[in-house]
Amino acid sequence: MLNLLTRKMGLQMIKHIYFFLLIVFINVFRLGLGLYLNIPEVALILIFIYASATNRVYGSIMGVTIGLIKDIMIGRAIGIYAITYLLPVYLVGYLMEHKFVSSNRLNMFLVFALGSGLFEMIFWLLNELTFMTEVSILSIFKWQQIINMIIQSVIGVLLYPRLRKIVKKGGYLFKY
């Protein structure tokens, strides 16, 4: 009985590690193409889904870890992306704990859009305080950023039911 329990816990841990590595790979891919294309922040949506499927604390830990890895990859200042991922992920995880949000796709879309907008605002604020960029806050909400927030929210709503099964206990992405 104990062997079966430890084996299930090991499989669950492997799923979390695979999900973590998927997010890291998406970040590396996005950073590689980020100079040439304006790609939505899909890793943020995956962390939102992780926080929604587990809870806000695990999602925040995942967000801080992914943020630190992204800070190390970019190399400007350590902690900018960690804090930028932490606050919106915690908020989305908190809001998704309520049944009325996670059961309705429109509410889920609005929560993901709120989280994406908060991500952009915190990123702007931290960059402004750290590097004195003198970029107006109105430049955050250009049409391009609003379209990215909508795309991110649509991606989140479409991927949530499928990826939630990976993170939840006993779920699989594909049936065998």
UniProtKB/TrEMBL annotation:
Keyword Transmembrane helix: yes
Subcellular location(s) per record: Cell membrane
Transmembrane segments: 17-37, 78-96, 108-126, 146-163
Domain of life: Bacteria
Keywords: Cell membrane, Cell shape, Membrane, Transmembrane, Transmembrane helix
Membrane topology: Multi-pass membrane protein
One GO cellular component term: plasma membrane
Biological processes per GO annotation: regulation of cell shape
Presence of keyword Lipoprotein: no
UniProt cross-references to NCBIfam families, sorted A to Z: shape_MreD
Family, similarity comment: Belongs to the MreD family.
UniProt-recorded name of the protein: Rod shape-determining protein MreD
UniProt gene name: mreD
